[in-house]
Amino acid sequence: MRTLTIGQNDAGQRLDKFLTKALPRLPKSLLYKSIRIKKIKVNRKRATPEQILSAGDELQLFLPDDLFDRTGDADTASELSRIRGDLPILYEDDNLILLDKRPGIAVHEDERGSADTLLTALRAYLFRRGEYDPDKEQSFAPSLCNRIDRNTGGIVIAAKNAATLRDMNERIRRRVMGKYYLAAVHGVPKEREATLRGYLVKDEKRKEVTIFRENPPKNAKEIATRYRVLATSPDGKL
Question: Which residue segments constitute the domains of the chain, with CATH numbers given?
């Protein structure tokens, strides 16, 4: 039997969601069966998959030892200790960091499996400062709240703890915060300021995005882009 104690960064999650992160080797079928037959308990009592965990809760897990093996995890203290380099910080406090992502840098690991990403650099930076230790965390790692394409530069928000990550994600979901881009384009729009509307369909398998102006398919997502012309130049120099 193993015991896991819920920390601040683990609190506020459903039991099944927490265990999926904390024990990635645990098959979902075994997860739900173990909860049902009381091989997974919370504070020595029967639990439910949707039960919300609180800091200080103790989980009793009657599961095979190999499910607790974290060998091969992407983030380990030894891996992060090898990563060097400056992090382009615009602002930092106890809860979040604003990063200046340059064009050409990936924010997350892509299909090529490159570890040279903004997220890895962030975690290595916090590890060096003693603010993050992957060997002591069970279900959380410092995370990026928004994404920017590899070839685009801009501000990326990073959360140092789970509470801040949830708060920022909720603000983004409610569109309390907006995205603003500076772009150089060929030609001059007829209107100096306007809102363009359309529909977007993303093909995850082919990594393609298709935009429709009208007659969109059922799975399309409505999108809107507002623009304002700041300056024009006949020779392309601004």
Answer: 2-68 (3.10.290.10), 77-173 (3.30.2350.10), 183-238 (no CATH)
Look at the block and give the residue holding tokens 């974290």. Answer: 70
Which among 56, 61, 149, 41 is positioned nearest to 101, based on CA atoms? 149
CA–CA distance, 156 with 146 (Å, rounded to integer): 6
- Mapping DSSP to helix (H, G, I), strand (E, B) and coil, where does residue 68 land? helix
For residue 159, what is the DSSP state?
E
C-beta separation of 67 from 2 below 8 A: no
Distance (Å, whole) CA 89 – CA 109? 20
| Predicted TM-score (pTM) of this structure | 0.77
Taking only the tens place, the pLDDT of each residue in 141-175 is 999 999 898 889 999 999 999 999 999 999 999 98
CA 209, chain centre distance (Å): 21
d(CA 177, CA 173): 9
What is the per-residue pLDDT across 2-29, written as a single tens digit (0 to 9) for each? 999 999 999 999 999 999 999 999 999 9
Angle at which helix 15-22 crosses helix 28-36, to 10 degrees, equals 130
